[in-house]
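Translate sequence into structure tokens.
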Amino acid sequence: MSNVKVKDRVETKVQFVDTARELAVHTLHYAKKFPKSAMFLITKDIVDLSKEIYKSVVCANVFFPIQTETDVAERYKLFKHALGCIETLDSLLGIARDDYGSADISDYGWVHWGELMKSEENLIKKVLSSDRKTDVS
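Result follows.
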């Protein structure tokens, strides 16, 4: 259990929100580089997933500081949803790269996408681990 009661904690800058936002911005920038024919086949799904990750972590952050077991459960659900979206986004980007690898996306663009997703995944997992130790009394 954490030694600091929830009511005595202060909120600090949350990196997982900043990283999710950066992922969404990166996705919007590079989605424009896919062929227009891919828009309704895969590009829209890729963009929607990046926005869903961002929305989920912003909503999860509303439940901080954690006050009740319900807050813990809601926050957990939102973070798990974000993790699922990251996995799906990674899969769709793999398909897109295989199918549209000739799109005007640099190696940096692809690599940075992967780095952002991995970073966001790790940050969320750290928060979930920390939340499990939270004393809601």
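Note: Residues 69-100 form the longest helix (32 residues).
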